[in-house]
# Entry
Amino acid sequence: MTRLMGEILTAVAMMAASVWVISVSSEFPAGGDIMPLFCAFGVIFLSVCMLVEAFLKKREVLIEKISFDLSYSYRKPYILLVLSLLYFGIIFLVGYYVSTFIFLMTASYVIGVRRYRFMLVTALILLPAMYAFFELFLQTRLPTGWLI
Amino acid sequence: MYLADAFGYLGHIATMETFLAMLLGVSVGLVIGAIPGLSPPMAIALLIPVSFNMQPAPALILLVSCFAAGIYGGSFSAILLRAPGTSASAASAIEGYEMTKSGRAVQAIRISTFASVVGGIVSGLVLLLLAPPLAQVSLWFGPSELFLTALLGLTTIAAVTFGSVTKGLISGLFGLFLSTFGIDQYSSFPRFTFDLIGLSSGFGIMPAIIGLFAFAQGMELSEGDAHSNISGTKTLSWNIFPRWSEIMHVRWSLVRGWICGLVIGMVPAAGASVAQWIAYAWEIRHAKPGDRFGKGEVKGLAATEGSNNGVTGTSLIPMFVLGVPGGISAAVILGALIVHGLQPGMSLFTNRPDVIYTIMWGFIFANLLMGFVAIFLARAMAYLTLFPRGLIGPLIIIFSIVGTYAGGNNFYEVWFMIGFGVLGYLMNKYGFSPAGVLLGLILGPIAEDGLRDLLIVSDNAPLSFILGRPIAVTILVCILIALFFAFRRRPWTEDQDDGAEETKD
# Structure
């Protein structure tokens, strides 16, 4: 896909979303529609500006291909995101301390850290420090589960 | 008479109890402020039970010290990790983190500390010397002025956007749109809640800040070599006190930041979150060829850091003199004031001058103490920038999740925070502005409430109403000037582009 096509698709998608906002917010009573309508019309106007800007760019920029890098380095943030979702998913099942230890070790390893002793020391300092700060000082209950 | 009274109570702070109250307030504020998710109001609330056993003056000094340090503490994580601890330090993350990336973390910390300490002291002096007359200014701010102040804040989106201004403005409008989610407080009608209970109160500011900056930063750090560090250096400088030449280089940026903070501090509901962006935009408008805004410009950092602590003292003026808190932190302090048997208002200055002036002096000296504590704490925290990126990324994510959960005890807020995190990461990648979304989200409720109130009080004729109010007209002129400068060509950015091309060649 070319950069021009990418800009056109982005602008059209934003305009379509704005039309949806206009249709939904027209039902809001007592002036509750003013701000959503302002935002929606503003985005439509700016999307048109974005299209005009895109067409005014130099030809070599417009035909430049958008490359989707599928290398492992590119995927690492998304893998970390999935691990984060799993971490928050299991934190109430197995408890904060166990899930945090597992998450820190797994996530660092997946990202590429191979200094195992350093990872372990970090975890061993972090977990008691967070216990002292959150549970003892702030009196906040960190999530607990089957384990700790 | 008033000044003689004010200076007459200076000696009252020279007690061990007052010093310990300052030290505790500053330490707690700095640590809690630095952790994303834990805010200064939470730190102040945490210290209220501690203050019960103290005399009123040291008790209130404890709380106002915590407030000042909490605002500054958020800058540590903003500068070192691009994970702002508070909404008041989000703008500092832009230039501060760029400085950290180029191995200038300690320089960023010392300029930030100087700007914050002096800003806090100046703000404290204004509080001490001009509180009663300046409190009247707060009363001049009606719906039209509040609406226009929010609009002025929104114009800064255009100014602080690097790259496409159009995409920056779209980001700001998206943030404004997100601020309308939840139950409408005027009609109790649910707006964009999709029948989800978690959305009924809309999106909170804290999950948005943590997600857009901290969580997104955690994801970004996982890219590339996991064993490299953020700062790109292996050692840190021990030079923690700013040099005279450094201060002279940023002197006008500091002055602009402090003025911005002092003025915005008196505007109800605006506070440090708004002041820093206006100061940053103002600073960018004064950019000269050679300045590198968006790439680690120390002048930008000086302005934002000066403004957010410049707010602290003046934001307490309406609270002490009128009993009207300008923000959440001031509201919590107001509660503590009443708990300690003190009634806010002018009567406080006539009936208990010993207490009120001691508190104000305590606030000024707490800012000085904050500088000493902060510079050593920040130096220790700067070591985080030497950690491997592959370990810092997951650590930031752990703090983002736990901090959000601990801050609100709300399951939904964590999911929203993760959603904002993905949004922030993708926006950074594709040239949109996460800062614009945040600014829209912060200013949205102020702008919307102001506009709707304005329509009611003006009988649907807002323009003629605005033109009849001098302060509103002044703000309107400021908006027009801001827009003119925002869309004007920026010679300094062209200079940067040329530089980049030259490097490539």
